[in-house]
Each structure stands twice: as C-alpha cells, then as structure tokens.
Amino acid sequence: MESSQQFPLQKNNSFNIKAICPIIYFPKTLADLKSLPDLSEKIFYILGDGSNTLFIEEQAPIIIKPNFKGIKISESADHYVVRAGAAENWHELVKYCLVKGIFGLENLALIPGSVGAAPVQNIGAYGAELSQFCSQIKWYEFASKAIKPLSNDDCQFSYRNSIFKEALYNKGIITEVIFNFPKLWRANLSYAGLNTLGQNPTAKQVMDKIISLRQAKLPDPTKLPNAGSFFKNPLVNKEKATSLKAIYPLIPLYIQDNGQVKLAAGWLIEEVGLKGYRKNGVGVHEHQALVLVNYGSDEGKDIVVLAKYVQQQVLAKFDILISPEVRMITQQGEQDFANLTKVHECH
Ligand code: EPU
Known about the structure:
Blueprint: E1 2-8, E2 20-26, H1 30-34, E3 44-46, E4 53-55, E5 62-64, E6 71-75, E7 79-85, H2 90-99, E8 124-125, E9 128-129, E10 134-141, E11 146-151, E12 172-182, H3 203-217, E13 226-229, E14 235-236, H4 238-247, E15 253-255, E16 261-263, H5 265-271, E17 278-279, E18 282-284, E19 291-294, H6 300-318, E20 327-330, E21 333-335, H7 341-345
Parallel strand pairs: 2-5, 3-5, 4-20
Antiparallel strand pairs: 1-2, 6-7, 7-12, 8-9, 10-11, 10-12, 13-19, 14-16, 15-16, 17-18, 18-19, 20-21
The protein binds uridine-diphosphate-2(N-acetylglucosaminyl) butyric acid (EPU).
C-alpha cells in the first residue's frame, strides 16, 4: 500500500493550514486495508479531501486517506443504482450523474469534499440531504478486517451527523457509497431561493441555479481558504424561538418535525456585528457569516481563537451556544471544541 512519512498536509486541507503527520496511508484495495498496522492503541484521523477539517497544531496524528475510486451504474425498471468509491470527488459525482440522466443530487452540487466523507456528516444544502439518496454504505471494520454493508437505517443519519461520528467513530473506513435514485424525478424546489426557477425546471437548470447561489455567497476554497459552514445551525425549543421572534421579528426560524426550531447561525453572527470581521489573518466571510476564512495564516489556532470569539459573542447576546461542524485535529487526535481552552488562552 502506498504510504508516506513526515507528510505535509497543507494541500490536503481547504483551510490551507500548515501541518505535518508522521505517516499517511492511502489504502485503495481490501488487501491494503488488511495490511494496515493495528491502530487500536494509536491516535489517528481519517481524512477525505480535508474540506471540513481544521489542523490546530503543526503536528498532526497518523492519517489514513482512503483512495477507493470508481463509479458504477446499474438500473432496475424504476430505479438507478450508483456505486461510488470513497475517494471520488463529490461534485464530480453530482455532475457525472446528471450527464448520465440520473437526477436527484443536483441540489447538492458544488459541495466540496469526497464521496466517502459525505455520509459522515450527512451533507446537506438547499432542501436536500445525502440521507435521502444513500441506500447502503460499504464499511471496512478494523476489528474483523472485513467489509460490512450498512443500510440507510444503520447509518442513523440526522442533521450533520451519522453513526460514523458516534458509535462507529474510528472503528473502520467507508470504502464505497451506494445511492438509489427513482427514475421518476421531480425537482426539489423547497428552498426559498429556488422559486425563480418556475414550476418545471430541468435537473440541469436546478444544478446551475444551485451553483450560482453558492458562488454568490460562499467563497471558493481554492481562492480563499475556508471549510464552508464553520458552525452548525443551532436547535432551540419553541419557547426560546417565540421569545427571540418577539425581540427580532426578522429572525429566520425553521420549525422541525419534532417541534424544535432551527436558527440560522449565520444570521446570529451577523446580528452580533461580526460579518466581515478580521483579525490575525483570519476572519468571518463578508457575504456569509457562517463561513470563517483564512486570509493568510498558517496556523489553525488563529481560526480557533476567532471561532471562540464568535461563539462567545453569540452566547452573550442570544444565550445560544453555537458549535462547530468543522472537525478539530491536534497531534492528540480529534478534539471537542469545548475542550480547546488552552489553545485559546495561550494565544
Ligand atoms: N443569514 C444571514 N446572514 C448571514 C448568513 C445567513 O442573515 O451571514 C440568513 C439568510 O439570509 C437566511 C438564513 O440566514 O435567512 C439561512 O441562510 P442560508 O440559506 O444561506 O443557509 P445557512 O443556514 O446559513 C445552511 C448550510 C449550508 C448550505 C445552506 C443552503 C449548515 C451549517 N449550513 O447554511 O451548508 O449550503 O444552508 O442550504 O447547515 C456547509 O455545510 O458547508 C454549507 C455551506
């Protein structure tokens, strides 16, 4: 299996932060996976395209970067089945499906990252989520050294979460994602910004609209390093939402099936006056306050300091704790943002 020691990761994270790992493994076959050393007592991190990862220290832990490639399509009378290797690029998969006349992923166009990372945080945008289309995941289990199929239910998908961040965390590796698309397709126009498309747009028209919406608001990580939404949108109870609405009539509220209310973290951050804020070479994006950008820092801790400041300001004004969706990685492995006080204090 391909591997490399003292591997620089700056080109492998969309924040463009300098970090180095003692060793990186690139498994691309079952035999490669079986030949991985026993990591059960070691600290390691599984990296996709690095578009949701923040390296906080110059030293990173051992990295495994799955390199499973290939897209296969099959069909039944009323469905298409698409199987994509974990290392395929997400947006390339979306475009490939559309070219082949397979529709469904168009609302998820232009999301940075790999196919294998997509189910981990159940990527979602513009009224769609990966969980709506994912029928099965092939997952290699370190303990049994075997690939196991996991059904959609097994994955326990929820907003920006899945079993891969919970019970199966670091217990194995996603090698392939299998999607199911009904041939009978209808455009998903539930997101308010899609109402200019009329009643019956084509999937290509929906994709082009999503791409233009994203390009208008979200910075291109290859030009302005960032990791998309830095924070998750917080959930509050109905009472809290009602009292906020009384004070801020324009606050966006999204009522959930379970009665909870989702708030727009970007709105909260803008409301505390931090949209466009900059310090130490990092800042809050000027068009979408949910996105933190790196204007020229090499150090992930600058982003942590900024994120802590944003979190504190929102907490002070609204009494709401916003939490990052970005994964925080130190030499000691993944850290909970709440425990990163030392990085914050020493700065
Ligand atoms: N808003 C502001 N100011 C801002 C940003 C947003 O007032 O700076 C307001 C908007 O005007 C709107 C509301 O907040 O009323 C929601 O904004 P938007 O539709 O842009 O979506 P979001 O909640 O900020 C989420 C996802 C994005 C996804 C968009 C579109 C999360 C954490 N983020 O953002 O996902 O593209 O919806 O569906 O759920 C990502 O995960 O990296 C990502 C970009």
